[in-house]
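[Q] Does anyone have a clean structure-token version of this?
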Amino acid sequence: MRRTSGLVLLALAVFFAALSPLLRWYAFPRLAKVPANQYQDMVLEARNATLLDYGTMRARTVPKVTIVQTLRGNVEASERIERSAGRDVVVWDTLSYVQGPDGRMVSRIPERYIFDAHTQEPVHATGEMVDGDPVRREGIEFKWPFLTEKRNYEYFDAQTRTSAPIHYKGTRGFRGLEVYYFEQTVPWTEVAFPKAMPVKGITPESVAATGTTRWYTTVRRFWVEPLTGAPVYGEEIHKEELRGGTLLGDRDKVTAFAGHVKMREDYIEHTVDLVESHRTLVLLLTSRLPWGLLTLGALLLALALWLEARGRRPSGPAPDTAATAEPVSA
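[A] Here you go.
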């Protein structure tokens, strides 16, 4: 009976020990994925910012500029692309809406971002765009991969429509979480005017006809939780200028927008809470369950060996034949 129990325990020990690496290296990469129907909104603010008054074409200081970013998963589009791509795909329709202190629109830029649900690598398909212009993204945008590494990544900039390295700058603490800090500097670059202009009747084409161009630079910063790859906080030191042309009169350039854009406090708290819950699930699949199964396998193996050793042990002392033998007479 002990031998049978030992064999059963040995089989269970081998099963759990083999299941541990399978869960970490086989199941996790297939189970961890961004949901196709995700919805998220974010509010950022730039206080005491510089903003162009299009009525006077003069820059002025305003108490606050608000940027509302919404992200909506397009399930129908992702299912359609999945059939041809042969893998799990997520389609995000996003909108960055900038408004001045009076609530009026400053700019409105939609995007469609298509990427692999597991790796966050871009998937190139019809509909990938920024502000209606077709683009071909390289690198990441909005989200880092699961199990983010301490290295530089290619990050797509929607204003320039190009990708450039975003640099890993070290590990930091943020609201009780260990995060990786990344930073990217986009140098002054000529960029397109938004298709939705803040003044009625003015179009990008009419502005371009004056010879005036739009230039942009930013320092982009992200604090990323490495297990989920989700940014828990982000900010930009953002500047835009209009340069040259008859629109500016005798001036060479004028500031269109300049400000330190930061996430609003209530959205920071919500994001940290959300990332903490997702982090627990990732930690369960990558660390706690694999190590727990491995430990359980080791304990079962030790128990099986103990039962085997006990089964081999003699049950009692051998009888003394010399003491019990009867005398033999001649």
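[Q] Thanks! Anything notable?
[A] Residues 265-312 form the longest helix (48 residues).
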